[in-house]
Amino acid sequence: MTVVDTPTSERDPVNPFKSTERGGKVDPIFRWVLRSSGVLVLAILALMVLRTTWAAWPVFASEGLDFFTGTLWSVGPSRSEVTGTYGAWPFIYGTLVSSALAIIIALPLAICTALYLTQLAPPRIARPGSYLVEMLASVPSIIFGLWGLLWFLPNVLRPVMNFLEDTLGQSFPPFSILFEGPVFGVSYFAAGVVLAIMILPIITAICREVFMLAPEGEKQAAYGLGATRWEVIRKVVLARSVPGVVGGTMLGLGRALGETVAVAMLIGASQRVGTSLLFPGDSMAAVIFNTFADGAPEAIWALFAIGVTLFFITMIVNILARLLVWRIGRITGDATV
Amino acid sequence: MTTTVTRTRRRARWAAPLLAVGLIAAACGGDDAGNGNGDDENGSSTPTVGGETQDLSGTLLGAGATFPTPLFLEWLGAYQEIEPEVDINYQSVGSGGGIEQFLSETVDFGSTERYLTDEEVEEAEEIRGCASIHIPVVFGSVTVAYNLPQIEGEELVLDAETTAAIFARDITNWNDPAIAALNPDLDLPDVDMIPVHRSDGSGTTYIFTRYLSDEVESWDDEYGFGSEINWAAGTVGGAGNEGVTAGVQQNPGGIGYVSFAYAVENDIPVASQINADGNAVAPTVETVAAAPAAIVDELPEDLRFDILNVGADAFPIVGTNWVLAWECGYDENTEELLKAFWTWAVTEGAPIAEDLVYAPLTGPVIDLALEQIDKINSQN
Question: How far apart are CA B346 and CA B339, in angstroms?
Fold first, then answer.
């Protein structure tokens, strides 16, 4: 059949994917667009890292490792040299503590919510429920901050914190240290709880996806062997989903580490390390946000240095997450997510 | 009376973001701010013949402190009615940002609550080849607000020593003998104090800590002064006057420093402070304005000064807002506009400032400011 070979025909009716003249021209352009997009993203990332590190260099050079371990943050007024003392440990500590707290609170809640939505809830609840959870993710963080500071903190968190201080705070270590009074209101705890609410939808959404992927055959088999619903969830759904849940948690952690406005409003902006969760502290993103506008040039270099540090901490968290997911994936022999 | 004040302020606050948007557009549209030694693009500007009521036209761009923003907005609005062709944009980016933009010559004037350091003055001289000018345009005070329902409606008196001890966490309870000694008539309860400070770098913090550093040696040694300092453990930060107020009002026993105008607007109780003569003075527009007037004879020629150690009936924690300008490098039209607007602001603008609870310049301070304004572009 020679009809199909006419050069004027754009599309081959037998093999629609056969290369056409136009396709042959577009292909290189298409490849070029994709490649440059990929390169552009990497270039922007590299530029950001280089530029911030370059801007932060005077502070790194003058403080050395003390920048990461020092606890005194005292800014100088200079425009040309480093005259202040810059120890960023209180901020690093605050970021880690508030994020850890957020994960500790959000993870169990997210798993339970996702289990309910995928395994228990009837469809007429499950679908709107999932939408609602995802809607929570689209609330801007400034709203979380304002709501947290002006309503949630005085009306909900403060009674909770007073209670924790009265009970656990009066008990024995480590609780007596973690919940030592007085209750200030804004604190690591307040920031952590609001962060937990903010990352809850991310972790829930991913857990939900992962749980839905649990192999139906295995579930049915387990039921067939007489397993209860709880046993099926524990031994099939959860066991199969560990890598995915870890991945989702790390995404949430990534957001918690970098969250700025809400944390800045709730963590207390005290440049001190407090062992009690009820003490006010400060986080890396928050201190940059708070003091950038009014800083002298040397203070701004120091804030850039915090930015670089935050970037590397986030990167380390991401790498650890990858390794963890990969490792668990090999153990359980599962390819989920 | 109070309601009108509140209403104007509220309007001003709403206007701020709108103005900022306009500003960005203006800033992107074209850089009118550069040193316009070259040709004057604005050929249509009406020739000026001296005197006060000429028809000016053109654009001014300024940036700096957030503290006077509500006042500047009102001033700009009122001035627009007098000179409809004059378009003045003010970016409220903070004192540090104002100094930075001034020194990088992206604005016609800067605004700041801390005067330029010697290093900055020298750098400014190198940048433009002529001196920078500090023009005081308004004064504001920082007051100690507190939340102690037990003494509601009564006057609380504090002195510098006690205030410093509270913020250094040496005094942690309201029934401390040091506070009781200053307030013999008050029945102070056994309540923990929770000091609240600004978490953002701020001129308010500068004014407050400058006062404490000057009055209390141990404060100066340990904490010093600046737009942000390393606060004692056990104090809480709040972002902006709003954040500090929230911190104070949500914590029974809370105590924090806020700009006086903000405290009045929100009806927060503030402490009277003991000044250099040992008088307990409550902050009012008059007692705040009295502070700079009291030291007018001691002011340095370049008007880079702190208002410290004032006595008589002056409130002691007072700071200045300066407008920064250059002695050279403006084109003629910009020079005219700068001189005309700031002359108007420090003289005719006083009632507007008082309405908003800022302390305007008074008597001899006005003359000093006008002298500074006259120096604008004088070395061109």
Answer: 11
Nearest-CA neighbor of A77 among B186, B127, B227?
B227
What does the pLDDT read at residue A177? 83
> Using N-to-C axis directions, what is the helix angle for B95-103 and B118-128, rounded to 10°?
30
A299 with B201: Cβ contact below 8 A: yes
The tokens describing B12, both together, are 């001003």
Residue B145 phi/psi, 5-degree rounding, is: -95, 150
Using DSSP, how many helices (H) and how many strands (E) does chain A show? 14, 2
Read out DSSP for B85-126?
Answer: TEEEEEEE--HHHHHHHHHTT-SSEEEESSPPPHHHHHHHHH
Tell me how far apart the alpha carbons of residues A16 and B342 are, in angstroms, rounded to a whole number.
75
pLDDT in tens, B323-380: 999 998 888 888 888 999 999 999 998 899 888 888 888 888 898 899 899 888 888 7
Q: Is the pTM of this model over 0.90?
A: no
Pairwise CA distance, residues A79 & A284, whole Å = 23
CATH superfamily, region A90-333 = MetI-like (1.10.3720.10)
> Considering only CB atoms, which chain B residues are within 8 Å of A74?
224, 229-230
How high is the pLDDT of residue A331?
A: 64
The Cα B187–Cα B173 span in angstroms is 13
Place A194 in a pLDDT band, splitting at 50, 70 and 90: very high
DSSP assignment of B226-291: SSS--PPTT-EEESHHHHHHHHHHHSTTEEEEEEHHHHHHTT--B-EEE-TTS-EE---HHHHHHH
Tell me how many degrees the CA angle B264-A149-B66 measures, rounded to the nearest 5: 45
Check residue B307 and report its DSSP letter: B
A293, B226: Cβ pair inside 8 Å?
Answer: no
Q: For the residues B105-130, what does the mean pLDDT come to?
A: 89
Q: Which residues 83-102 of chain B have a CB within 8 Å of chain A?
A: 93-97, 100
B280, amino acid identity = A
Separation CA B91–CA B203 (nearest Å): 16
A185: nearest CA partner in chain B? B251
Interface residue A70 vs chain B (CB under 8 A): no
Report yes or no: B44 at the A interface, CB cutoff 8 Å: no
Q: Which of B103, B250, B266, B304 is the best mutation test for A, with the most CBs of A within 10 A?
A: B250
Write the ipTM.
0.71
Looking at the complex, report in whole angstroms how far the Cα of residue A105 sits from the nearest Cα belonging to chain B. Answer: 24
> How many other CB atoms are found less than 10 A from the CB of residue B25?
10
Q: CA of A294: which chain B residue's CA is closest?
A: B96
Site from B228, B245, B266 to mutate, A interface, most A CB atoms within 10 angstroms: B228
CA distance A111 to A206: 10
The C-alpha atoms of residue A114 and residue A217 are separated, in whole angstroms, by: 20
3-state secondary structure of B289: helix
